Amino acid sequence: MSLRVSKAGLQTTLQGGPFVGHRHIGMPAAGAADCLSLALANVLVGKPSRTTALEITLTEAVFEVDEPCAIAVVGAAAYVRINGQDHPQHETLTVAAGDRLDIGPSRHGCRTYLALSAEIQADELLEGRSTYLAAGLGGFHGRALAAGDVIGFARSSANRDTYRVTPPALRLHFGDDHVLRVTPGPETGKGDRDMFDQFCHSPYAVGARSNRMGVALEGARLPASHASNMQSAAVFPGTIQMPPSGEPYLLGPDAQTTGGYPRIAQVIRADRHLIGQLRAGSKIQFVQTTTERATDIYREKLSLLSKWLGQIHLW
Q1: Do residues 278 and 178 lie in contact, with contact meaning Cβ atoms separated by under 8 Å?
Q2: Topology annotation, domain 177-309
Q3: pTM for the complete prediction?
Q4: CA contacts within 13 A on the Cβ side of 233
Q5: CA 244 to chain CA centroid, nearest Å
Q6: Residue ranges covered by each domain of the chain
Q7: C-beta neighbour count of 194 within 10 angstroms
Q8: pLDDT at residue 1 above 80?
Q9: How far apart are CA 44 and CA 46, in angstroms?
Q10: Backbone angles phi, psi at 127, to 5 degrees
């Protein structure tokens, strides 16, 4: 069983769970940029939340299947069509041999996830199967998909007996305006509290320099930090750094493991999946919270999600 890529779009990769426990050797987390959309798609085809699926970025992607299977689509796509007929997201769908599957471009948001009932045959690395593009590792030969590629599946894993529909309360709604909650970064408590407050009161837009490694934020320039010459320290997806230019930079899933710019803020874990839906021109308002409240928010979100997704962790 296989899936043939007829049109790959801007950037379509195989993504699942992140690479865990390898940051000490410089391996980023990688994995799905919007892990919640990935989980919602996977549960519709009876798969664990971190199972590898296709992550489609911004533009249309088209596929052909050679055997029947179940699929689900969740994310920013404007439409889902099978042989030209519209079908809904957030619902288990079936495709037959020879069907053409068309995932539309993103009207709002940035990424869409296509999950399949069959197990994707992806390159395994460090106990993970996601793609880390910067190093050409994992996924489909370490690269984005191209027209003509054929993705193989383990025949024994197909399961077409499950039909599910995502509860309305759990469906994500994408727009061009975003609110991300943040806690102060490690350097904020060393004389830069005023800068953090200014950051949280200033609206920002996602700049053209935007990819899985991170997004440049355009808006109010902040004053240069006294820690601008700090030694390199640990950074994570959701870390917001302050380069000497005064324009903040928000790190994404493929970001490096250490950085030498001041870490002025950190997007809370409960909101981090939203970074995967930021696109050039998106507006962002950062809202300050405490580390204690961030922990409570995360627990509350997991409690809500687990009723439908089972045991889940967001990264």
Answers
A1: yes
A2: Cyclophilin (2.40.100)
A3: 0.95
A4: 15
A5: 28
A6: 2-170, 177-309
A7: 11
A8: no
A9: 6
A10: 65, 20
